[in-house]
Design brief:
Length: 366
C-alpha cells in the first residue's frame, strides 16, 4: 500500500509540528490536579484576562452569530489605521498575526528561495518557510541579541524576506531605533522586511517602524490582540504595510478569515485604555520582581523587555517537568536549541511569588 507521505509535499517531512505552551486542562488530566489551582506561565498570555470592554461587546455580538462577518473587517481596519495615523488600505487582518505570515509566504515565496532571521527567533518563521519549500538562514545571536549587520551580510541573491521580531521571542531582547534605522538604510528594495511587534505595547519607548510604511518601503509590521489586549483565544492580529503590498496580501486571504466575535472584541479592546495601562503596570512590576529574584538566586537570565523572561535553569525540560508537578506551567526551550533554558511569562504578583517559591524548591532539591 502506498504511503500517504509519497503523495504529500516533500518539504512537509522536514517540519516538526509547533508545540504551544502546555494547556491547563491537559496538565490537570495528566496529573490529576484541580485546573483552578494550576498557574500557566508558558504562553505570554495576559495575566489579567481579556479586556472587560471586549467581553461586554462580544456578549452583545453573539446574537448575530448566524451572520457572516465583514470579510474585510472595515470598522476594525479603520480604527487601527486612525490610531496609527495611516489609511485603512494600510491594514490587513489575520486569524492571529501568524496567518499574515502565511499570506506573505503565498504572495512572495517560492521553492528554493531564502529567508533570513536571527538565531533563537520565533520558530514559526522557519516552519512557515519550510512549508513553502524555502531555506531559512539563521544568523548567530551573540549574547542572545539580534545581529542586524550579520543578517544583512547573510542576504543571498535568493533572499526574498527578512524576519525581525522586536522584542524577540523567546529571548526578550530589543533592538534600538538607531540600529533599525541603520539597517533600513542599507536594505535593498527587492527584500521584504517583516517586523514582528507582537509585544509592542509593553515597551516604554518603542522604536518607530511605521515611518518606513509611510515612506512606502517594502516592509510589513505585524501586531496582535493576543498579548496585552488579552484576546489570544480569539486568534486575531493584523499587519500594517504600504497599500500596494496590502493589496497583494489580500489576494491570498481566504474569505471571512477573521470571525465577527473577534472583530467586535478587538474593536472594543482598542478603546479600553484602562485595561491596557493596568496590564502594563502589572507586567512591569512583575518583570522587575522576577529579575530581582533571579539575581538573588544567582540564576542566569536575559533581562526582558516584554511580558516574559528567559532563564537558564541548567536542564530546561527537567525543571519544566518538576514545576508541572507543582501545578506551574513554564515553557522549555529545547525546540529553540536552548535546552538549558525555560521561558517564564509574567503573571500576577501572587503567581510570580508562587513560581519563585516552587523554582527555589525544585532547584534546591537538585
Amino acid at each position: 500500500m502506498i504511503s500517504i507521505w509519497e503523495l504529500a509535499n516533500p518539504q512537509l517531512r522536514e517540519i516538526t509540528v509547533y508545540q504551544p505552551g502546555k494547556p491547563i486542562e491537559e496538565t490537570a488530566r495528566e496529573l490529576g490536579l484541580n485546573p483552578n489551582t494550576i498557574i500557566k506561565l508558558a504562553s505570554n498570555e495576559n495575566p489579567l484576562g481579556p479586556s472587560p470592554k471586549a467581553m461586554e461587546a462580544m456578549r452583545d455580538a453573539l446574537g448575530k452569530g448566524h451572520l457572516y462577518p465583514d470579510g474585510g473587517g472595515f470598522c476594525l481596519c479603520k480604527t487601527i489605521a486612525a490610531k496609527l495615523g495611516l489609511a485603512p488600505e494600510n491594514v490587513i487582518l489575520g486569524n492571529g498575526s501568524n496567518e499574515v505570515l502565511e499570506f506573505l509566504g503565498h504572495a512572495f515565496l517560492n521553492p528554493g528561495d531564502d529567508v533570513v532571521t536571527c538565531q533563537y527567533a520565533f520558530i514559526v518563521y522557519k516552519l512557515i518557510a519550510t512549508s513553502f519549500g524555502v531555506h531559512t538562514i539563521e544568523v548567530p545571536s551573540p549574547d542572545y541579541q539580534q545581529d542586524l549587520d550579520g543578517m544583512l551580510a547573510a542576504i543571498t541573491p535568493k533572499t526574498r524576506m527578512i524576519f525581525v521580531p522586536n522584542p524577540n521571542n523567546p529571548t526578550g531582547t530589543l533592538l534600538s531605533q538607531r540600529v533599525i534605522d541603520d539597517f533600513m538604510s542599507r536594505i535593498t528594495e527587492n527584500v521584504i522586511v517583516v517586523f514582528d511587534e507582537a509585544y509592542f505595547e509593553f515597551l516604554d519607548c518603542p522604536p518607530d517602524t511605521l515611518r518606513f510604511v509611510r515612506e512606502g518601503r517594502n516592509i510589513v509590521v505585524l501586531r496582535t490582540f493576543s498579548k496585552i489586549h488579552g484576546l489570544a483565544g480569539l486568534r486575531i492580529g493584523y499587519a500594517v504595510a504600504p497599500a500596494d503590498l496590502v493589496q497583494v496580501l489580500h489576494k491570498t486571504r481566504q474569505p471571512f478569515n477573521v470571525n465577527s466575535i473577534a472583530q467586535v472584541g478587538a474593536l472594543a479592546a482598542l478603546e479600553d485604555d484602562e485595561h491596557l495601562h493596568e496590564t502594563k503596570r502589572v507586567v512591569d512590576e512583575g518583570r522587575a520582581y522576577l529579575h530581582e529574584q533571579f539575581s538573588q538566586m544567582k540564576i542566569p537570565f536575559v533581562p526582558g523587555t516584554a511580558n516574559f523572561v528567559m532563564v537558564n535553569v541548567g536542564d530546561g525540560h527537567s525543571i519544566f517537568e518538576k514545576l508541572l508537578r507543582e501545578g506551574i506551567i513554564v515553557r522549555p526551550l529545547k525546540g529553540y536549541n536552548l535546552p538549558e533554558w525555560v521561558r517564564i511569562s509574567v503573571g500576577t504578583m501572587n503567581e510570580n511569588k508562587k513560581l519563585i517559591a516552587a523554582l527555589e524548591g525544585v532547584l534546591h532539591a537538585e
